[in-house]
Amino acid sequence: MGIDAGGTYTDSIIIRDSDGKVMDSNKALTTYPDLLTGIKNSIDGLDEKYLKDVKMVSVSTTLATNTILEKNGYPVGLILVGDYEIPERKDIEFYTIVKGGHDHHGAELVSLDMEAVEAFVSKVRDKVSAFAVSSYFSIRNPAHELAVKARIQELTGMPVVCGHELSLDLGAYERGITAYLNAQLIPIANQFIRSIREEISRRGMDSRLLMLKCDGSVVGINEALEKPIESIFSGPAASLVGASHLSGLETCAVIDVGGTSTDVSMLENGLPELCEEGAVVGGWQTKVKAIRMETSAMGGDSHVWIRNMKINIGPRRVIPLCVAAVKYPGFLEVLRKGRIPGAMHLDENVQPTKFFVRTGIEPSDLGKFEAELFDRIGDFPASLNDIFWETRKTLSPGLLDSLIRKRLVQAIGFTPTDALHVLGEYTAWDQEASRVGAKLLERYTETDHIEICKQIKQDVARNMALNLVSFIQTDVPSSEIEKILLSDRFTQFKMKIPVVLIGGPVVAYTRELKQILDADIIIPEHAEVGNAVGAVVGKGIKRIEILIKSAYSKDKKRLVLLFSPQGRETFGSYPDALEYADVLGRKLIMEYMTEAGLDKGQIQIEVSRKDISLSEAGAVPLETKLVFVGVGMPKV
């Protein structure tokens, strides 16, 4: 079983492992803030006769990404060891910088100031739930990080995350941020995974549990608990893997049209292209290796709003009118009879089709004016116009933004999903609510409501094409690409690889997309639940990097240093170091694969080697970088 808890829908799917055939699938609305309710609803729609035979469950989730974006992580104490320059943007409440660190050969630069560590821990231990530590050049020698970790656990018993455990890339501060964010997520991941396990057990399923990482690979649940940061952006990774499986293509571009965003990525020879500098999430530069993708805040549930007779789409997500009419009985009548704002007053929150409703989350720490506005919004959708005429008090649309960001209030509005309902190309919800909404927008544009919906559909298709071409042509500014896309002067982009579409009603955009792109556009069967497919068919992929460097001791003797995830080791000769590295790299790959529950008989390991030399061939290199990539399939 694969489960994908996305921004709008939670998809579940059952695949027969003998031949990869999809046996059953279901979609349910994602529930906030408790994702488990949406997961239960999604599984409930599956045929029960298959559940008892499910031996493996793999999950991809937006939980980590949303927690970081919404700044809802648990409080963490960050300890930076070494001489750091902290950027001006530092939204970290509890942190300290202490003396210590190593050089690029792994030799100690400055002794570790353990007393400063102990003083910081004593000061914040009652205010945090975990600690993170990053030491200067810990990728060459993690001794100071490990010493700090051991001491904190001895003093507090709390979880401690080390930077070198998550990344062996240069950038001590970024490794620290990665460790910090990871520590924030550990309690949340524990709770989520425990809930999933209980749900699987409650249904009588004797199943192993895996999670999808943001590089498109699956990971054993123990590592998922230790490194929840690696599940950020696992949704786009799931769409990429799912698209490859459903289409049977090893090389393709993938466009995933979700409710909140449109994501573009690419698979080449079965492996995704990774963002080498690390993923950026919530403004934080991390060292997490995620798939490279082009994303935009335009999806099926993006808000369509009017200002100055111009149609705008997004960037915010709302509940489509067609969905709200089903979710809130009586809403259709309110939409028909609602008070219409004047054209001069229109903005993103003041629209004839924009309504607000409570989410059910209890508020805390609201300001006076926030609390007043929250009290005026109830459990049934109401527009700002309705609230004003009931209270006769002027409202600040900006206050609504604050309540929405705090997940206390959610918005309802016209969306591209509604446009498809009006055009009759996707009718899963209340078609009449979408039609009424479109006719309301018609009043402000002097354009027929059918033409409005056709334009919205065209704009979404053009955005898909812009994302795709921008992703492929990284050296061309997107503004220049957009000029060509908007032009009708006998130009069209040609794609040399197939383009696979994944997501709900993506088939509706095929004709418009083909008018913009000359491409082999493929919509595979079960494209609407492609992410859930990706969650369950993901391969186990592990990358291990080992660096070997020539060096000299203090007494000028030649040494060979080896740096691996296990730390620094010294050898007397280069051949000895190379032989040891080959054995170690393969051993670490197999240990990881075994822990993740992958089939030993199906694990393939490839090794690439890059030498840096100053002299002719045959001489001992100054430096050798070995990269071990293991690929395996989950064992059922």
UniProtKB/TrEMBL annotation:
Pfam families: Hydant_A_N, Hydantoinase_A. SUPFAM superfamilies: Actin-like ATPase domain. Residues 175-317 form the Hydantoinase A/oxoprolinase domain. InterPro entries: ATPase_NBD, Hydant_A_N, Hydantoinase_A, Oxoprolinase-like. GO terms for biological process: glutathione metabolic process. Residues 1-154 form the Hydantoinase/oxoprolinase N-terminal domain. It comes from Methanosarcina vacuolata Z-761. GO terms for molecular function: 5-oxoprolinase (ATP-hydrolyzing) activity. One of its GO terms (cellular component) is cytosol. This is Hydantoinase.
